[in-house]
Design goal:
The structure is a single chain. This protein is α/β, with parallel strands linked by helices and 250 residues long. It is 46% helix and 15% strand. It has two domains: 204 residues, Rossmann fold, CATH 3.40.50; 37 residues, no CATH class. Strands 3-2-1-4-5-6-7 form a seven-stranded parallel sheet, sandwiched between helices. α5 links the parallel β5 and β6. The radius of gyration is 18 Å and the shape is globular.
Length: 250
C-alpha cells in the first residue's frame, strides 16, 4: 500500500504516518521543509517501517502531479496542509483577506492533491482520498475563517465522492478539533495572538468539558482511526465525514 501524506511534518502527519507504516504501508511524506520530512522518514525506518520523503508544494499543480507520477500506484491520499486560519476575532472585525485566506488555501490544496490522486485511482478502480477539518461549518462563533473554510471542504469532499464513487474510489473527511498534543502555544498563537500559558490550560480543560466523554481524543487515537478508514473494515464508507471530535455537546 502506498500512502501519500501532504503536510506530513506536523504532529498529526507524523502520528498518521507511523500508524500506516506499522500496518506495512509505504508512506510518502511531503511538505516544504526537507529536514523535518527526512527526520520523520528516518524515525519510521528505525521502527522498521517504509518511508520516503519529498519536498512538494501542495499549491504547485505541476509538482503535485510529478510526485504522484513518481509514486505510481496511490492507495491513500491524505491532505494535512495548513490553511492559514485566523481565529479569535469577531467576523465583523475581520478583514476580507483574513476571512478568505483559509477558504482559498484549503480548497486549493485539497483540490490539487485530490485531483492528482483521483486521476490515478479511477484507473486502478479503487483508492481512498482523505481530508481533515474541524467540523466548524455547523456553527462555531469566534472561529473566524475556520467555519467558512471547513464548509467549503465539506462540500468538496461530498461532491467528489459522488463523481468518482462509480469508479470504485472512496472520498472521506475526518473532523478533529482540539487534539491536546497539537494545541501548543506556538501553534495557537499562529491563529490567535492573544493566547498565553494560562489561556492554553483553560482551553484544554474547557475542551475536555465539552466532550460527551469529558476527555479529548488523543493523537494516537486519531491516527489509528484514520488508518482504519483505509482498511477493509471501512470499505463501505464514502462521501461522508467521520466525527472524531469526541462529540461536542454544545
Amino acid at each position: 500500500m502506498n500512502v501519500i501524506i501532504y503536510g506530513a511534518a506536523g504532529g498529526i502527519g507524523g502520528a498518521v504516518a507511523e500508524a500506516f507504516a506499522r500496518q506495512g504501508a509505504t508512506v510518502h511524506l511531503t511538505g516544504r521543509t526537507a529536514a523535518t520530512l527526512e527526520a520523520l522518514a528516518a524515525r519510521i525506518r528505525e521502527q522498521g517501517g517504509k518511508a520516503e520523503a519529498a519536498v512538494v508544494d501542495a499549491f504547485d499543480e505541476e509538482a503535485v502531479e510529478a510526485h504522484a507520477a513518481s509514486v505510481g500506484r496511490i492507495d491513500v491520499s491524505l491532505n494535512l496542509v495548513p490553511r492559514g486560519d485566523v481565529q479569535g476575532i469577531p467576523l465583523v472585525d475581520m478583514s476580507v483577506a483574513d476571512l478568505t485566506r483559509a477558504v482559498t488555501a484549503g480548497l486549493t490544496t485539497n483540490f490539487i492533491t485530490a485531483r492528482a490522486a483521483a486521476r490515478r485511482m479511477v484507473e486502478q478502480g479503487e483508492g481512498l482520498i482523505l481530508a481533515l477539518d474541524s467540523g466548524s461549518a455547523h456553527g462555531s462563533p469566534m472561529m473566524g475563517s475556520t467555519g467558512p473554510a471547513d464548509a467549503a471542504l465539506d462540500t468538496f469532499v461530498r461532491n467528489l465522492a459522488m463523481e468518482v464513487g462509480p469508479r470504485g474510489v472512496r472520498v472521506m473527511g475526518v473532523w478533529v478539533a482540539g487534539i491536546p498534543e497539537t494545541l501548543t502555544l506556538e501553534k495557537l498563537r499562529a491563529v490567535n495572538a492573544g493566547i498565553d500559558a494560562d489561556a492554553l490550560s483553560g482551553i484544554h480543560a474547557n475542551l475536555d468539558g465539552l466532550r460527551m466523554l469529558r476527555r479529548s481524543p488523543r493523537l494516537p487515537d486519531i491516527a489509528e482511526m484514520i488508518a482504519l478508514l483505509a482498511s477493509p473494515a471501512a470499505r463501505g464508507m464514502t462521501g461522508t465525514w467521520v466525527n472524531a471530535t469526541g462529540m461536542f455537546t454544545s
